[in-house]
């Protein structure tokens, strides 16, 4: 299946995309991870304000469309099934995506803003394998150590309170209109993302199975 997962920063897109990729044997295409792995790539020839993605990401601002569109275009051309996470983030990107592929399911995870701040400032990620934890909601067995691979758990550069609040503002301004744009699509489903992760997953699996 071709699955799109939408939602604000911290809604659980990464967490649930990992489940989707495993359950449906599809590629997890995530612009956030792709950019984090290429933070220092030279984008100065794309006529951008900064020379690398790093400056945009640390502040919680959007990386310019041309950079992100190229990443997604490349990733989707290699896959028939995917879960797309982190894109599109504005209406221009949504239009771009329409030229690249059709979608079977569009999931929209809904979580209230104050809960998002708590989730993001408490998030820890594994430096080695990328696994996701939360100091309170999903702690590792041993503090600071990844259960999966023994790697070190670190805090993302953009998970400080100032960047988090900016990311939520950027979401409201740029990405909320994308969700409105998909709302009347027959593949669109709202998922209550405020429930515990297992219950969110149950709802997602039911929604996807009904559409593929
Ligand atoms: P990106 O990496 O996409 O970050 P984001 O959208 O801010 O999303 P997150 O990864 O923070 O959250 P998530 O929804 O995946 O939540 P998670 O599962 O981790 O983008 C980062 C930056 O890259 C952007 O700011 C921008 O600069 C740039 N960028 C990326 N794409 C771009 C694009 N298309 N255009 C331009 N720029 C782009 O969960 C969060 C926490 O909550 C975790 O600790 C988790 O354990 C916990 N949690 C998860 N589910 C639950 C639950 N049900 N209950 C309690 N806790 C939970
Ligand atoms: Zn790990």
TrEMBL record:
Protein's UniProt keywords contain Transferase: yes
Domain Adenylate kinase active site lid: 123-158
Keyword set includes Iron-sulfur: no
Main location group: cytoplasm
Pathway(s) the chain acts in: Purine metabolism; AMP biosynthesis via salvage pathway; AMP from ADP: step 1/1
Residues annotated as binding Zn(2+): 126, 129, 146, 149
Catalytic activity: AMP + ATP = 2 ADP
Positions bound to ATP: 10-15, 123, 195
GO molecular function term, any single one: ATP binding
Ranges for region Disordered: 1-18
Notes on the domains: Consists of three domains, a large central CORE domain and two small peripheral domains, NMPbind and LID, which undergo movements during catalysis. The LID domain closes over the site of phosphoryl transfer upon ATP binding. Assembling and dissambling the active center during each catalytic cycle provides an effective means to prevent ATP hydrolysis. Some bacteria have evolved a zinc-coordinating structure that stabilizes the LID domain.
Function: Catalyzes the reversible transfer of the terminal phosphate group between ATP and AMP. Plays an important role in cellular energy homeostasis and in adenine nucleotide metabolism.
The name this protein goes by in its record: Adenylate kinase
Species, as recorded: Haloarcula nitratireducens
Lineage: Archaea, Methanobacteriati, Methanobacteriota, Stenosarchaea group, Halobacteria
Gene name of the record: adk
